[in-house]
Amino acid sequence: MSVEQNKESIRRLVNIFNAHDFSRVGEVCDENVVYRTGSGIEVQGLDAYEDIMLQTHEGFPDFEYSLEELFGEGNRVLATYRFTGTHEGEFFGIPASGNEADYMVAAVFRFENGKLVDHMDFYDGLTFMRVVGVISEEVRPGGKDWPSGGTVLRPQ
Fold first, then answer.
1. What are 53-85's pLDDT values in tens digits?
2. Cis omega (within 30 of 0) for bond into 147
3. Model confidence, pTM
4. CA gap 70, 65 in Å, rounded
5. Phi and psi dihedrals of 50, rounded to 5?
6. What confidence tens digit (pLDDT) does each residue in 22-65 have?
7. In what order do the strands lie in the sheet containing 42-44?
8. Which domains does the chain have, with CATH numbers?
9. How far apart are CA 92 and CA 115, in angstroms?
10. How many Å apart are CA 16 and CA 27, to the nearest integer?
11. Which residues pair with 84 in a beta bridge?
């Protein structure tokens, strides 16, 4: 496929995510798709990829991805997108906080034979942990005793 076709596949995938119709991800993804994050999450397979999106929807029922930029070369596409949503449900074991999420993500997508085979997200995990209420707003990089920045964890 061409770079432009791969970019169009990413647009389709984002539309599927925003419609919260996760059963359709197979239209774009290979059955052995791998999803990874810079924080160490890794899942393989279409069912696991769909499950990640379902869990995201459970935690953020109104979530939306807004594509900002797409760049491509060969069989890879780099996207930057904004994630917005309200943390109204449990998210990977984290109880609802009611907090609004609004943060940027950079992602690298790799295609083979017209299907997405690898998706890797990079985002600011510290900001995300603040949003879902796992750590307090007091946590700031560069504070006393860096690298902790004076981390204050919420009691469980």
1. 999 999 999 999 999 999 999 999 999 999 999
2. yes
3. 0.84
4. 13
5. -60, -40
6. 899 999 999 999 999 988 889 999 999 999 999 999 999 999 99
7. 42-44, 29-37, 115-123, 100-112, 76-86, 64-73
8. 3-123 (3.10.450.50)
9. 28
10. 9
11. 64, 102
CA 81 → CA 5, 47, 114, distances in Å?
19, 23, 22
Burial 14-38 (b: 16+ CB within 10 A, else e): bebbeeeebeebbebbbeebbbbbe
CA–CA dist 57, 52 (Å, integer): 9
Beta bridge mates, 71: 78
The β-bridge partners of 86 are 100
Q: Taking a C-beta distance cutoff of 8 angstroms, is the pair 134, 154 a contact? A: yes
Q: Which residues of 118-155 are buried (b: 16+ CB within 10 A; e: fewer)?
A: bbbbebeeeebbbbbbbbeeebeeeeeeeeebebeeee
The encoded tokens of residue 125 equal: 């995990």
Residue among 27, 51, 29, 31 at smallest CA distance from 41 = 51
How far apart (Å, rounded) are the C-alpha atoms in residues 53 and 45? 13
